[in-house]
């Protein structure tokens, strides 16, 4: 299974026409992915047959949320599930970087009440004990774990991913993500034994209105200062053609 990380409805269409079967739908990918709009979800479900996992994340930075943020996240998750989401990707940590068991339990309960998939995202990559943490997630009913093996890129965390797959792969789905593309996807899957990868297949599109004479709204690197990131249909096709 190849899952494409999408930041908009247009991204979802590019993933779909590139041959993907499942996406993680977000907004603001430059912040690591935030909760998508209901409109982008409805359009994706109405015009494609993609399986859509929706991110629920109210802000950038970490994963230790206030009571106000948690309340918002639960309402957003419910709205997404009622509008066709096939699952929810989320992550709750305590200040000591351990899994927030109570909040995770509440979110899983909500997701399962709609008979959808509960996905714990790369908040996991900030934990201190990956083995104790994955066992907690399994016991709480998490269906799938997205991880880069506690490293910035999955290629660097492949040894831990392999160990997690060997020890827990029959209890939870392991989805490797971060820095995976058509040049390394197959090798990572063969080395780790996993059956799923998560890729952004990112390219850049120019918008000349990003910069004015005295102001700019740039967020990309210098060579893409007036660009925004988007899913490339061609890069999705390359990944899919590997036959993974």
TrEMBL record:
Q: Which domain of life is it from?
A: Bacteria
Annotated source species: Thomasclavelia ramosa DSM 1402
The record's PANTHER family line, in alphabetical order, gives: COPPER HOMEOSTASIS PROTEIN CUTC, COPPER HOMEOSTASIS PROTEIN CUTC HOMOLOG
Membrane-spanning ranges? none
InterPro entries named in the record: CutC-like, CutC-like_dom_sf
Q: What is this protein called?
A: Copper homeostasis protein cutC homolog
Family designation? Belongs to the CutC family.
Q: Which GO terms describe its molecular function?
A: copper ion binding
Q: Which Pfam families match?
A: CutC
Q: Per the database entry, which stretches of residues form a coiled coil?
A: none
């Amino acid at each position: 299974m190849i899952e494409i990380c999408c930041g908009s409805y247009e991204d979802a269409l590019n993933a779909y026409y590139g041959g993907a079967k499942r996406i993680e739908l977000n907004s603001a990918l430059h912040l690591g992915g935030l909760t998508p709009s209901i409109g982008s979800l409805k359009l994706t479900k109405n015009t494609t047959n993609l399986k859509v996992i929706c991110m629920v994340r109210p802000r950038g930075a970490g994963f230790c949320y206030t009571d106000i943020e948690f309340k918002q996240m639960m309402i957003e998750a419910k709205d997404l599930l009622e509008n066709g989401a096939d699952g929810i990707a989320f992550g709750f940590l305590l200040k000591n970087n351990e899994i927030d068991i109570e909040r995770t339990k509440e979110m899983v309960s909500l997701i399962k009440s709609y008979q959808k998939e509960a996905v714990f995202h790369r908040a996991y990559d900030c934990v201190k004990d990956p083995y104790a943490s994955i066992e907690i997630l399994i016991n709480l009913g998490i269906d799938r774990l997205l991880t880069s093996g506690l490293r910035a890129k999955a290629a660097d965390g492949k040894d831990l991913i392999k160990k997690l797959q060997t020890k827990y792969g029959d209890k939870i789905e392991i989805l490797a993500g971060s820095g995976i593309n058509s040049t390394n996807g197959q090798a990572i899957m063969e080395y780790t034994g996993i059956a799923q990868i998560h890729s952004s297949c990112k390219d850049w599109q120019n918008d000349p209105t990003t910069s004015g004479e005295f102001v700019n709204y740039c967020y990309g690197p210098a060579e893409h200062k007036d660009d925004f990131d988007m899913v490339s249909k061609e890069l999705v096709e390359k990944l899919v053609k590997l036959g993974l």
